[in-house]
Amino acid sequence: MADWKSGIRRVLYPAYESRMLRRMPTENLPRHVGVMLDGNRRWAKAVGADTAHGHRAGAANIEPLLGWCEEVGIEHVTLWLLSTDNLNRPAAELTPLLGIIEEAVASLADQQRWRLHPVGALDLLPQSTAEKLKAAAESTREVDGILVNIAVGYGGRREIADAVRSLLHEQASKGMTLEELAEVIDVEHIAEHLYTRGQPDPDLVIRTSGEQRLGGFLLWQSTHSEFYFCEAYWPDFRRVDFLRAIRAYAHRERRYGS
User: Suppose 120 and one of 36, 154, 246, 248 were both cysteines; which one would form an S-S bond, judging by CB atoms 3.0 to 4.6 Å apart?
Assistant: First the structure.
């Protein structure tokens, strides 16, 4: 019975997805989508596999996601692959995960389809991981494709602290005192020092696995974002789930905090 149902889904879902894509509104689509790739470990447990298997399955779903983003014309994507909190996980889990992330990012860079931009506290990562992220960014610097922020060692509070620290150093180098800076500082000054400076804030943030919280993802930038929470664990997140998220966004009336 399960195989029969699975076969029916394989036949029907492509047609359903194609119809969704054809009927998708074109005038109200997000420019920037943030994705919290959550649920790899729980997916692995559900299928009776080890944690590393879950992370590999999650990594394999990144390229399809970027292809779906290309289909609907999204210009910026931010992928949260590893938080600063997760850097405290046992080495037995963290080391393989960092290796999987390195391989996934290198594979994306090799395709020369997307411009990769690491965001996060790279100084907290092992030197080899940080170097590979920087190399991927450099090798795709001239690619004319979606700008993909790779959030590794990322935490929203850490980003804001780093932005303020960078701003203070910049103004101190110009001879400005703390008292003078306090008189003129505003939100735009801080925004100019975020990891995503120069980019539009995310219009839509998607979180998989059923969790309905941000957990520190793009704290500053998501002030006016719309949120979409999907029950599927990240390795099971499908094109139809993505299109449903985009459709839900397109039908919302954005109030920008009002």
Answer: 154
